[in-house]
């Protein structure tokens, strides 16, 4: 592969407060970025941009979206002023269209916290062009995988393809473990995911709702795991080359695992 080839990534972005209290995930993301070739651009598929149709952002200067409420004022002052990538957006849309995925382009969409929070630790200078790609929960894991597969060749052209979600995400447990303890489903679920990724068992991962232990508890809704399926598809081959980066468990129920997928390489 050319020297500009990059892995695809799956990032557990955690609470918006991760931006102010990075815990283990901040240093792990910084270390990961330091180990990668510098991308020419970044495509982020975030759990916080949902829709019925794949939508590609094409803003020249995407605004920082504070898509949350009830947090400290300091969080709302944070900005991530990265440039956009309008030309790449056209390329992304064309590749998705060629795969039969019927994309549209949004010329104004900014960066939600699923994008800018982890990017603050990956590339704090905010000097790499970024665009976002929406996900479609109603269409399921295989659809997100197909989106990643359609864009996988961009990795060989210096584009970093990133899915941003959370390896476990059950906000009903927000208060249950705030004072300590750990949700009993977290370890069995993340261990199953790691085992299946290392075994390149793509069919099982696409069917995680039926096959994974505690799937309903770990993900009452799909949107925070679907970016994993996007990143898997973006590996470009069923040989995923998955490597897990342990970033701990936040608040007893949010596992902060990061994965890089190097594909057959």
From TrEMBL:
InterPro entries reported for this sequence:
Extradiol_dOase_DODA, Xdiol_dOase_suB
Q: Which UniProt keywords apply?
A: Dioxygenase, Metal-binding, Oxidoreductase, Zinc
Q: Which residues form the signal peptide?
A: none
Entry annotated with the keyword Protein biosynthesis: no
Q: Spell out the molecular function terms from Gene Ontology.
A: ferrous iron binding; oxidoreductase activity, acting on single donors with incorporation of molecular oxygen, incorporation of two atoms of oxygen; zinc ion binding
Q: Where is the Extradiol ring-cleavage dioxygenase class III enzyme subunit B domain?
A: 31-238
TM regions (residue ranges): none
**Needed cofactors:** Zn(2+)
Q: Which family does it belong to?
A: Belongs to the DODA-type extradiol aromatic ring-opening dioxygenase family.
User: Any idea what this protein is called?
Assistant: Dioxygenase subunit
Q: Which organism is it from?
A: Stenotrophomonas acidaminiphila
């Amino acid at each position: 592969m050319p020297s500009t080839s990059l892995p695809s990534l799956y990032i557990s972005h955690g609470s918006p407060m991760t931006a102010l209290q990075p815990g283990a995930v901040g240093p792990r993301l910084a270390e990961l970025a330091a180990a990668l070739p510098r991308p020419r651009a970044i495509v982020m598929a975030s759990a916080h941009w949902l829709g019925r149709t794949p939508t590609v952002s094409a803003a020249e200067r995407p605004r920082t979206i504070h898509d949350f409420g009830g947090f400290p004022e300091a969080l709302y002052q944070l900005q991530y002023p990265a440039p956009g990538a309008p030309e790449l957006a056209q390329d992304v849309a064309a590749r998705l269209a060629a795969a039969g995925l019927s994309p549209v382009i949004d010329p104004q969409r900014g960066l939600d916290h699923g994008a800018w929070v982890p990017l603050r630790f990956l590339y704090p200078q905010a000097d790499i062009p970024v665009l976002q790609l929406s996900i479609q929960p109603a269409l399921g894991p295989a659809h997100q995988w197909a989106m990643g597969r359609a864009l996988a060749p961009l990795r060989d052209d210096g584009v970093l393809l990133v899915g941003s979600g959370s390896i476990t995400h059950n906000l009903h447990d927000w208060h249950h473990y705030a004072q300590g303890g750990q949700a009993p489903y977290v370890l069995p679920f993340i261990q199953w995911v790691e085992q299946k990724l290392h075994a390149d068992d793509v069919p099982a991962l696409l069917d995680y709702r039926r096959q994974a232990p505690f799937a309903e508890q770990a993900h009452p809704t799909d949107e925070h795991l679907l970016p994993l399926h996007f990143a898997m598809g973006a590996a470009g081959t069923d040989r995923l080359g998955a490597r897990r980066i342990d970033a701990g468990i936040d608040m007893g129920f949010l596992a902060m695992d990061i994965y890089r997928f190097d594909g057959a390489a």
